[in-house]
Amino acid sequence: MNSGADNYRRFLSGDKDGLADLVRTYRDSLTLYIYSIVGDIGIAEELMEDTFVKLYVSKPKYSGKSSFKTWLYSIGKHTATDYIRWNSRIRQISSETILDVADEVNLEVDTIKSEESKMLHKAIQRLKPEYEQVLYLSYFENFSNDETAEIMKKTNRQVRNLLYNAKKALKSELEKEGYVYENL
Length: 184
Fold this sequence. Notes:
The structure is a single chain. This protein is an all-alpha fold. Helices cover about 70% and strands about 0% of the residues. The chain folds into 2 domains: about 1-110, RNA polymerase sigma factor, region 2, helix turn helix motif (Rna Polymerase Sigma Factor, Chain: A, Orthogonal Bundle), CATH 1.10.1740; about 110-184, Orthogonal Bundle (Arc Repressor Mutant, subunit A). The protein contains 9 helices and no strands. Helix 2 runs antiparallel to helix 3 (about 40-60) and helix 8 crosses helix 9. The longest helix has 23 residues, at about 15-40. Mean pLDDT is about 80; it is low at about 90-105 and about 105-115.
């Protein structure tokens, strides 16, 4: 699907609606991805906006070597990493905040529909940030290992290892809750 790239080209050609279409298409999923990095939904929303501001102001070149979504998520990851570097506030949120995020923000309602999904999502949030990111990109966003590797600045082998270890850690986390997830 090239609609993201097509919309970006429209925007670069002077059609402001192209950027508006990009924002509508990617804002929610990009926010959730950034949230997996920074751990604060408010900050994630701001960083998502900053990502689109970068597109608007800097107009970086999209080469087409990867999917548009992969390229956009790379910019989002870079934006989040810069934020963490400059603010050195890595994942300082309470467990109550994690449990209330779905109530506070309607973004996750579409992603988390059943009690099983909620338990799985909460268990993922308790994992190391790198595990949370690789699981989110691979399973919630359906990125391939190559695309996930590009976004996370890892090799394909590192992503495979991360996925293996993340699934193992997730299984352990779910077992602590007394739940056995057969697909892990």
